[in-house]
Amino acid sequence: MVELQRQQTKLRQQAWLFGFVATAAVTISLISVTAQLLSTAAPLWRGGPPGDTILKVARQAVLTAPALFYVVGLSRARRVFGRIGRGEIFIRANSQGLIAIGWSLLLGALWAIAVAGLDPAAQDQSVDHVLRATAFGAADLALAALGLALIMIGRVMNAAVILKAESDGFV
């Protein structure tokens, strides 16, 4: 019994730590996206050409959209880990939360892959630029795969919750 209480205390602490780090990551991400959009729109306040600036702001919004998908995923993860920290582990809300996190990662990564060509390319196409582009592409594919994995884990967990509810009904 003491070991179980120690594990639950450790789980609560880890859930709190995750919540803190996730909140910091969400805040930094939102500040970063806002700063990118505002800096791209800055010529509008200085009397620059509105048509060109609006197109650049729209392009920047499209390029930064994956970060917003990841912010949604982190927010959902915060909720899941908050419930886990309260001792609510194998419940339907957590399995649905894992599925939502997976979809956020998957859609963000697919969006990033789809709009990668909008990012300005280096003129010289140096090896460094090619390797950096390859690394970003690989990271996006890894995030998409992680998203799919979380969707599947959430679905398996959901099936387990349903089976547990059915077996509890028989007892």
Descriptive account of the structure:
The structure is a single chain. With 171 residues, the protein is mostly helical. The chain has one domain (2-170). 86% of the residues lie in helices and 0% in strands. The chain has helices spanning 2-45, 50-85, 92-114, 127-170. 18% of the residues are buried. The model has no long low-confidence stretch (mean pLDDT 87).
Could you tell me how far the N terminus lies from the C terminus, measured between alpha carbons in angstroms? 24 Å
How helix-rich are the residues, as a percent range?
over 70%
Number of E strands: 0
Number of domains: 1
Largest sheet: none
* Cα-atom radius of gyration: 21 Å
State the helix count.
4
Low-confidence runs (pLDDT<50, min 5 residues)? none
